[in-house]
Amino acid sequence: MNQAGVSNPANSIFMSGKYCCMVMRINVDCNACCRKLRKIILNLRAIESHLIEKQECRVSVCGTFRPSDVAIKIRKKMNRRVQILEIQEFDAATTEQIDHNPMVRG
């Protein structure tokens, strides 16, 4: 919260207590786009590790964040469509894995 008592929306990504691994589909068709995406991901403090698969147009990120907030932030900064393929949440207390697969694979 700032002095006026309003919470900072930029810090809302980091408010989640669960460790998440998320796989997204982003069209990264050139080296410049790949470098731009890498720079954006490195500037997000909540993301601890990432993997950019340029040929498959797939990006994997892991850390303590809200998946929707990270996807929205990347979409706004890259000006490209972001599709969440898979989310895995790990509860810190029980170390159990919770799977979320919003996409039907066939």
TrEMBL record:
In terms of domain of life, where is this protein from?
A: Eukaryota
For this protein, the record's PANTHER family field holds: HEAVY METAL-ASSOCIATED ISOPRENYLATED PLANT PROTEIN 26-LIKE ISOFORM X1, OS08G0431150 PROTEIN
Full protein name: HMA domain-containing protein
Taxonomic classification: Eukaryota, Viridiplantae, Streptophyta, Embryophyta, Tracheophyta
